Each structure stands twice: as structure tokens, then as C-alpha cells.
Amino acid sequence: MNLSFYIVDVFTEKKYAGNQLAVFLGADALSDEQMQKIAREINFAESTFITKLEPKISVAEIRIFTPEHEMKFAGHPIIGTSWVLMNRIFENQPEKITLSVPIGEIPIHQSGDLVWLQAAQPQFLDTFSAEGFLSFSNLSSADFDDEFPIQEVSTGSAFVIVPLKNKKALENLILDKDKMNEWLHTHCKTNHRALYFYCLEDAKLISRMLCIENNQLIEDAATGSASTCLQAFLLKYYSPEIKIVNHQGDFINRASQIYFDGKLTENHFVIKIGGETQFIAKGEWEV
Description:
This protein is α+β, with helices and mostly antiparallel strands. It has helices at residues 32-42, 75-89, 131-134, 167-171, 177-187, 224-237; strands at residues 2-10, 19-24, 46-54, 59-65, 70-71, 96-101, 104-111, 114-118, 123-128, 150-154, 158-163, 194-201, 204-213, 216-220, 241-248, 256-265, 268-275, 277-286. The longest helix has 15 residues, at 75-89.
């Protein structure tokens, strides 16, 4: 059995930056175990598997796997897969499609070079003291932006949003893997445990996403799901309308640009993120 697959770079204006993604077509015959093994073999942050395709109505069903587990929702795989569908698979090249993922249907649209998704309504979970972070990082109390809380937020996948005062603190960040893992398991409400550090300095938004996978400390180049959580957080605590570019991956040489366009009205969140996708390769995968 052979599967066609595409490799793209997501949330980037140029090749060999942003977040890598493998997109596998015709995956409906694969077992969960096979999808997981393929994702582990290719070893990108995530790989997607298209399990149902309805070109006439521009609808597709996908599953998303990291090298370690399946994700219910993840931004860069949804954006990248949508770009492949709209620009390489669907013959009519529609500007709007719907992707079905485990948390539900995600509306997608393409405007110029940007593909946009609209996230689900956020959940604001526990808040935390900065003191806990001092035990597993090189941060000092003065590095945290105390105008904002530290809080776990979810739009399908949960992230602990950690506001820092400046780019220097973000750039010099060092974490102790084992102590961080212990903190995450003690404090996080969901099975998806990750930290999303950010700073707003001179009106520029910069971020870093770190998590533990396969017993390794991993930094992601561009995290769409975390960005939807961060956008919800900023709408709640910073401004009820926001249009800004989130810069991630700068400190691991995979510069990424994630566009925010959000609005909060009477406790209803409109959370949209967008980004460019670059085509890298197409091939056949023998299962």
C-alpha cells in the first residue's frame, strides 16, 4: 500500500523556516498504530492524515499526530493541510473549506497568500504564581510581566500562557526538564501539557513554546494551537480587539510569522490565526 504525501513549511514567508509538516492522503485504511508509527518515523512536530475527502463540497477529515501521541486540535497542521488541499488537491482551488478534526469542524479560508482558521471558544483554567517557575527555570521574579496572570488556556489543546517583560528574558530562557515535567504534571488540568512564554515589547509580539515529548525538552517553531490560546488571553486581558503578528521560532533558526485577528464582544471570542505555507516536496510512502 502506497500513500501520496506532501511536505510543507507552515507559518513562514520563505522555505526552510516556520514549522515542518507532512500531509498524507488516503489514510482511511491506516490503523491508529500505523499513523503513529509513520509520524514517529518522519519525526516532525506533527504529521496529518487525511481520512475522508469530499472535493465537491470542499470538506476533509483529518487526524493529527505528533511523534508521541494524537492531537485533538493543532494550528500549524490545520493551516498546512488546508493549504495543500486548496492549492494542490481540490481542482477548483476553493477559497473556503471545512476541516473536521477530533474537536469538531474548523472553518478555513484563504485570502491572498494567507490561510486562516477560526478557533473554538476558549476555556480559561487555573492561574499560577510565578514562584513555581523559579524552581525549574533561570527566570527571576523581575522577569515576569505582572500586569498579566500566568494561566492555562485551551481552545482544544491547553497551554500555560506565561507573560515575560522583555525579549532578553525570553531569549535567555533555560528550563530544567525533569523539574518542569514534575510541575506540569502537578498543575495542568489536561493531558496536553506545555508552556507558552511570550513578551510584548515595543508593540512586537514574540513567543516560545516548550514541552516535553519522548522524555526530551522540545521547542516548537510555530504553534498555531498555542497562538489561538494566546490570542484569547490577550483579548481577555490586553485589548478586546487585536491585529498583530506573533513571531515564534526566532531562537531556534526557524523564524515564523503567525497572524492574529481577534475580537471579544460580550464574552464571545472570535479568534482567527493565519499564515503562509511554502511547498517543499511531494512523494510516495510505502506502508
